[in-house]
Hints:
Number of strands: 6
Largest sheet: 6 strands, antiparallel
Number of helices: 8
Radius of gyration: 20 Å
CATH architecture of the largest domain: Orthogonal Bundle
Shape: globular
Strand content: 15-25%
Order of helices and strands: HHHHHHEEEHEHEE
Distance between the termini: 40 Å
CATH class of the largest domain: Mainly Alpha
Helix content: 25-40%
Structural class: alpha+beta
CATH superfamily of the largest domain: Nitrile hydratase, beta subunit
CATH topology of the largest domain: Cyclin A, domain 1
Number of domains: 2
Amino acid sequence: MNGAHDLGGKQGFGPIDPEPESGEPLFHADWERRVFALTLATGMLGQWNLDESRFARERQHPVDYLRHSYYENWLAGVEKLLQEKGLLDLDPAMLSRLTVPDAASAEKILFSGGPTLMADVNPPQFSPGDRVRVTRRRESGHTRMPTYVQGAEGRIETHYGSHVFPDANTRGERRGEHLYSVSFSGEQLWGAGAEVDLVFVDLWEPYLQVLA
């Protein structure tokens, strides 16, 4: 995976030039492998969730985030969480609050992940075929709404049910919101002459509004 500073497709970053998936190694250096393992191992201690982990990386200074490579951002996030959760200077009382899985439990976690599907509290606002507009994000914090779709018009393709809402989950508020697959024309996202015909993005209901 290329570093953030090599990311194309955004103004000022040049064209996208990805490595062919068939030829890209899982890790480009041994230290990346260690950072990946460290991220998984510390995440299994039960002190933060996946969205908190993502947000820890995003809370870097923007210059640092863009100049770091992919796994350098992962390392920066782990370092921040270990410090904020008090795990770098651990007192004995803290040990009893940690979840330390054995090898069998760790393997199960790795292969099954954690459930995100939640019971529906409210009926879905949209149905397949509905036209919608993506809201523009104005508040700070973690989100899974890509910048390039904000303000764009799309079509609901699939309703996945209610899933953990990442924007709230990073604050420790585990609640469900309806999740949809939304299609966008390349022209809608990038203007006339776009080389992509159709783009599908998974978006939560709070990100969407009825197209007037």
